[in-house]
Amino acid sequence: MKRKYLYGIVCLAFSTGAYAGGEVHIGNWPDYMPSSLLTQFEKETGVKTTLDVYESDAALTEKLQAGAGGYDVAITGDYYVPILAHAGLLTKLDKSKLSNAANIKPEFAHPSFDPERNYAMPYMVVITGFSYDGARVTGGRLDDSWKPFFDPEPAVRGQIADLDAVEELYMAASWYLGQDECSEKPDDAKRVLAILEKQKPFVKIYSNDGPIDRIVSKQVIVQHNWNGSSERASQQLSSVKFVVPREGARMLLDNLVIPAKAKNLSAAYQFVNWMMKPEIIAEVSNALRYNNAIRGSEKYMDQALLRDPAINVPEDQKARLRPYKACSPAALSLRSKVWTKLKG
């Protein structure tokens, strides 16, 4: 997806005066925050906003490690919260300034990646599976398994797009094989690598950019994808379907964090707290087609979205969802080696 600066261009020259009028600099993934929301925040608070985008959580991490970005607030996934926190790249939150944290649903109040929510407040609840164009596959339907993704039918080969994210692909391949994504066994890592290498000749592109455009414009038939992204694609092309694979699908929590080098802490807290209002986060859900972790937001959400099984997974499929799990350094080292070999 082409990077879209939804509200202004990043300015790399900061000074005390730049924030005197009250400006909050936000970093996010492409197409992952409605521009109208930033305009609304400005009108309600008088705080100016600037939005910059990065291609992935890994790219955000590299920016913060290099002291770049200049973000007051950033969006990152659960997998990266402990990495950033342990590296000293995040501000430990003063929750007395976040009164709307009381709105967090109980099931999301103490996530394993940040049990006391000392570093991260919830943004969107995301499920990773895959989308496909039912008009272009045999019989109009693919099995609700990772098999059609990793071992595709002939018509689909060469027409697959994978997300360019080690955690997404490694976890999916592990679950497809029926093994623990945090295994420390080298043989398990070798099996994951074998699955990914077998699929590789059939993959047109590894990219986090453009999953909606790519499948809607029929550049691919199968797209490794997030449920909200898939839902937005289906609004443009009705034959797009989303699969929550029965072997396991990642349920990730994206979060609002305040980088350690934030220049305008006051505005950062104001923005994060504002985002946890039920009516505000519902605007994001309605626009991006993801669920959220804030109580009371349902009153403001599209009823069609609440009924969508790709967004609110049916009870009989909830066991498929796999929340964040902390892996040991040994397991993560194996994962990194697999990724290096795959992409090398």
UniProtKB/TrEMBL annotation:
Q: Where is the signal peptide?
A: 1-20
Tell me, in one coarse class, where this protein mainly resides: periplasm
Question: Which annotated residues bind spermidine?
Answer: 79
Compartments it resides in: Periplasm
Instruction: Share an example GO biological-process annotation for this protein.
Output: polyamine transport
Name the domain of life: Bacteria
An example GO CC term for this entry is: periplasmic space
UniProt keyword annotations, A-Z? Periplasm, Signal, Transport
One Pfam entry name: SBP_bac_8
Q: Name one GO molecular function term.
A: polyamine binding
Question: What Gene3D superfamilies would the database entry show?
Answer: Periplasmic binding protein-like II
Family statement drawn from the similarity comment of this UniProt entry: Belongs to the bacterial solute-binding protein PotD/PotF family.
Q: What does this protein do?
A: Required for the activity of the bacterial periplasmic transport system of putrescine.
Q: What's the protein called, per UniProt?
A: Putrescine-binding periplasmic protein
Its organism's taxonomic lineage begins at:
Bacteria, Pseudomonadati, Pseudomonadota, Betaproteobacteria, Burkholderiales
